[in-house]
Amino acid sequence: MEYEAVIGLETHVQLKTKSKMWCGCANAFGAPPNTNVCPVCLGLPGVLPVANDEALRLTALTGLLLNCTVAHSAKFDRKNYFYPDMPKNYQITQYDRPSTMNGSVGFEFAGRMAHVRITRAHLEEDVGKNFHFERNSGVDFNRAGVPLMEIVSEPDITDADMAYDYLNALKSILIYGGVSDCDMEKGMVRCDVNVSVRPKGQKELGAKIEIKNMNSFSGVRRALEYEIPRQIEVLTKGGRLSQETRRWDDVGCITETMRTKEQAHDYRYFPEPDLMPFVPSAQWLEEVRGRVVELPLAKKQRFMTAYQLPASDAETFVNDATLGQYFEKIAAQSKNPKSVANWVINNLRAKLTEAQTTLSDLKFKPADILELIDLVESGRISTRIAQEVFSETFATGEPPGQIVQKKGLAQVSDSAVVEKFCDDAIAANPRSAEDFRAGKAAALNFLKGQVMKLSKGKANPNLVGEILERKLKQSPNT
Ligand code: ADP
Ligand code: MG
Ligand code: ZN
Q1: Which end of the chain is least crowded, N or C, by CB within 10 Å?
Q2: How far apart, in whole angstroms, are the C-alpha atoms of residue 39 and residue 23?
Q3: pTM
């Protein structure tokens, strides 16, 4: 019997707001423990939450970016449970009326377009962080009350690689939209993985196993690469699977049971009495709509068609959006956007890394790259000299044309001058001239090299080739 996997992901994302979800405390990573706290996010009695409007906007924006509908009325609910890092003993979330629902994400997977439907994206709050020391434990509440969005997918994912690519697609959409920095190192994205297997062709879903709290995408992939075969093996051996929650051990590379359905929490959800349902006005929605940006995949496709770039160049500019923006500024004025891309990717990017600077600190103007390309295309300088000129433009900010003039780097296309170099090269290398006449084509390249050397790289290489060939084909005595 053949089995197939069914995967749905619940992705938690910290939103990029200045302050927390219900209070004015800073939403900031890395502050000393318990310095970004107040009575509200510490859950002291008698306080009232005030919803962060920017968090509501970012959630609605996410909905639009993920092709969801935005709710006309969204409600907040209390999810009750006890955990030491959650001082209120409940989390404010959205239960039956989330901010946004029914969308989809399209992304490239295994050479084709894949689509994963989005069930909902709702708004809630993060909890604090427990620390366990040698003799005692501590809680840092700086993270408590940070706006957290949960994006729930339909079970449309079929394997570990697809889960990985979906998560990366989602992440780049959220970064593009300015919704979240999605910094994995800072725990800004965490994921619950739901996975079941079923006989191929069966409609009914198998027992859902949930792997909680994954904090890296590669971890999600590894966990699924372990868990799917495990489930298949249980069924193949005649065993049964039942709904449970498991934890991934990234060192041992196994999943293990955390709790079964019988031990599942009853959260006793009820409407949050301290918050009104959120009903966005038409103007509010219009403003959010104004923040919709071009998504990474659309941008890649546009770069490929508008500028005739290969997929790899387009991807480079999608992944490094500021570099892409810089490229577009120049390419818009160029007849040859591919050369612009070559300069920006191969030369400029390398120099930026080498000099450890950024595009905002460049000494030269974008138009200087156009000038450099013109100098090469018009035959004024060779590509090799162009690299030299670019290094100097990069270092000093001096325009390429000026450097060429000052240093006398212009390519020599005066045939009388080039002829003289050719004569000298032939005279100095009579054996190579003989070899060429005897039919060794490679000898011509050697002589060409000699002429380039004599001219300090400035002779026009095409002209050198032409003149050398003509001279060598004449009799040696004329
Ligand atoms: P809960 O409310 O208990 O978290 P849901 O049914 O809302 O469970 O689903 C949570 C996630 O699990 C969603 O991403 C959904 O697509 C996925 N899911 C639901 N049933 C299954 C299943 N049988 N196999 C795999 N994933 C599933
Ligand atoms: Mg769940
Ligand atoms: Zn606070």
Answers
A1: C
A2: 9
A3: 0.85
Residues of the chain with CATH 1.10.10.410: 415-473
Q: Which atom of ligand 1 is nearest to the CA of 210?
A: 12
Q: 98 in ligand 1 pocket by Cβ < 6 Å?
A: no
Domain 415-473 of CATH type 3.30.930.10: no
Give the number of whichever ligand sits closest to the CA of residue 23: 3
pLDDT tens, residue by residue, 176-186: 999 999 999 99
